[in-house]
Amino acid sequence: MSTELSDLLHNEYDEVLNSCEFSDIEIMIGEDPDTKVYKAHSLILKIRSPYFRTALTDDSERTDDNNVIKLQKSDITVEVFDILIKYMYSSFIDLYRNDIKTNVALLIAADELCLNGLCNFIEEHLLSDEILLKQNFILIQSVASKYHQFNKLVQFCEVNFELDPSLIFMAEDFTEIKQEILLDVIEKNNHAESPIEIWDRLFEWCVAQSNDELSLDVTKWTQNETSIFRSIVQPFLPHQC
Predict the structure, then answer these.
(1) By the 8 A CB rule, do 119 and 107 touch?
(2) Which of 65, 92, 119 is the last residue of a domain?
(3) Which of 130, 201, 212, 226 is the most buried (most CB within 10 A)?
(4) At what angle do helices 151-163 and 137-146 cross, to 10 degrees?
(5) 228 part of a folded domain
(6) What is the pLDDT of residue 210?
(7) Which tens digits make up the pLDDT trace of 47-63?
(8) By C-alpha distance, which of 198, 136, 144, 131 is closest to 166?
(9) Does residue 68 form part of some domain?
(10) Domain containing residue 33
(11) Nearest 10 degrees: Cα torsion 65, 66, 71, 76
C-alpha cells in the first residue's frame, strides 16, 4: 500500500471517529475529575480488540432508548485511551511523541484490551533505548514484576540488575521505589555504592515519602519534622547502609 493511500485511510478513519456518525457505543473513560465519554462503533472495536469482542457480546449493557451500549473503564486514563482508540480506528501510533511513563501506561492498557501486536510494538520501542530504561529503572522494574507477560522487559530488568544492583540507586526515579524493595536491596548489600552514597539517596527517598512535609534543608527542620523523618527512616536503621 502506498504512503499516500495509507495516509488517506488513516485520515478517513479519524474522521469516522471524530464525527460520531452511526456510533452505537459510549465508553466512559477515567476517574473524576478527569473523565471523558467516547462515542464509538462497536463493530470496529470488536474487530480490533478481543477485549471489546467479549465485552460487547452482552446485550444487557444496552441501557437507553436508542439502543446505545454503555461501558465504563476507570482504570485507563483519558490521555492513554485517546491514543489507543485512534490506533484502533487507524492503526497509526507515534510513540516518540510520548514520555516513557505514557508509553508504559499504553503498554499496560494495550495488554488489557488484548492488543497483542501493539504490545509487542511498544515493548520493542521501550527496549530500543536502554539508557532511558535505566534512568527510569524503578518504573520498569515495577511493571516487570507485576506483568510477567512482558517477557523482554522482565529479562532486561533481571539481567541488568544482576550485573549492577546499583542501578536502583542511580535511577532518576529512585524516590518512587517501594519501601520493601529498597529494604531488601540495602539488606543484601550486593551493590557497589558506598555507605555515604547510600545514605544520601536514602535521605532523598525519605524526604520524598513525607508528602512535602520535609525539605532537603535539614537546618530548617522543626522538632516535628525531625520526628517525621525518624519514623520514615526507622526501618532502615538496623541495616548497614
Answers:
(1) yes
(2) 92
(3) 201
(4) 130
(5) yes
(6) 95
(7) 999 999 998 886 545 66
(8) 198
(9) yes
(10) 1-92
(11) -130
